[in-house]
Every structure is written in C-alpha cells, then in structure tokens.
Design a protein that fits this description.
This protein has about 60 residues and is mainly alpha-helical. It contains two helices and two strands. Helices cover about 70% and strands about 5% of the residues. The two termini are about 20 Å apart.
Length: about 60
C-alpha cells in the first residue's frame, strides 16, 4: 500500500475512533442542569472522515491520469 493511501486510511480510522469514543464516553446532566459531553469529538471526527474521502478521491483521480 502506498504511503498516500496509508495517510488517507489513518485519517479515516481516526475519524471512526472519534465517533466510537464519543459514544463510549457518553453524556450526563449535572445538578445545575448543564450537559457534560465530549462534543468536540463530533466535528473532529467529521473533519477527519471528510479529509480522508477527499484524499481518496484526489489520489484516485491522479492515478487515473
């Protein structure tokens, strides 16, 4: 597997790990009514997955030429 595909695959795995860890950590409401959750993992996961899809598409187009 070429290095460029390893980078894209690693980003995809990191994105999936972000979503899985968000689900495993969970959320709770404290006594003041505030929700405590690791919300930052969601946009980070979406960014990683979108970057990996873009890289896979770019690498496929470059290989096609």
């Amino acid at each position: 597997m070429a290095t460029k595909y390893k980078i894209a695959t690693t980003l995809l795995v990191f994105g999936i790990i972000c979503f899985v860890s968000f689900e495993l950590i969970g959320s709770e409401v404290d006594e003041n009514g505030f929700i405590n959750e690791p919300f930052a993992l969601l946009p980070i996961g979406f960014i990683f997955i979108c970057l990996s899809m873009v890289l896979f598409i770019v690498f496929a187009l470059i290989k096609k030429k």
